[in-house]
Amino acid sequence: MTSQWMFYIDLNKCINCKSCEMACNEYNALNGVYRRKVISYDTELSETNVHLSISCNHCRNPVCVLICPENNFQKRQDGIVIHNSTNCKSCKRCMKACPFHALKLNPKTNRADKCNFCVERIDKGLKPVCIENCLTGALSMIKVNTNNIKSYTLNNLNIPIVKYTNPSIFIFEKQKGQIFLREGCNPI
């Protein structure tokens, strides 16, 4: 693997509209099981809260791949971590092991569930629905050379970044400034 997809989150642009959450939930027919969640932090960096859209980080060293006794996880060449729930026995080891709490128990299937980066859309050259529906462009994706990746941490926001998993996420830190809507988007 020489390059991999990463989520890129610009904390300057997120307005906590939750469009990414709703789009993911609707597209995947999750009925209240959120693969993507917007969380808010009170911080000294800004007069307003910082909002962070989170999901599976598609880690470079995913603990879920290592711990699943049924081998239901696979890391693709492009870095996307896929979960095949067909053989999932609901042992919850992956849920307990993930330092980001990205895996959830789907009450409908009684199996582990997680963000799959809308892999079926990626394979068709499309963006994940969460990114496509982000009103401000706060959530996007980048493809990076794995030899140059560095995990980005925000210690002052107390976000749990765990070095041994090497999350594939880049967070652009909150700066004082203006938030603009992405061209062609209208506020709800």
Automatic annotation (TrEMBL):
InterPro entries: 4Fe4S_Fe-S-bd, 4Fe4S_Fe_S_CS, ET_IronSulfur_Cluster-Binding. The keyword 4Fe-4S applies. It holds the Pfam family Fer4_11. Keywords: 4Fe-4S, Iron, Iron-sulfur, Metal-binding. Residues 5-35, 79-108 form the 4Fe-4S ferredoxin-type domain. One of its GO terms (molecular function) is metal ion binding. PANTHER family: PROTEIN NRFC, PROTEIN NRFC HOMOLOG. This is 4Fe-4S dicluster domain-containing protein. It comes from Cytobacillus dafuensis.
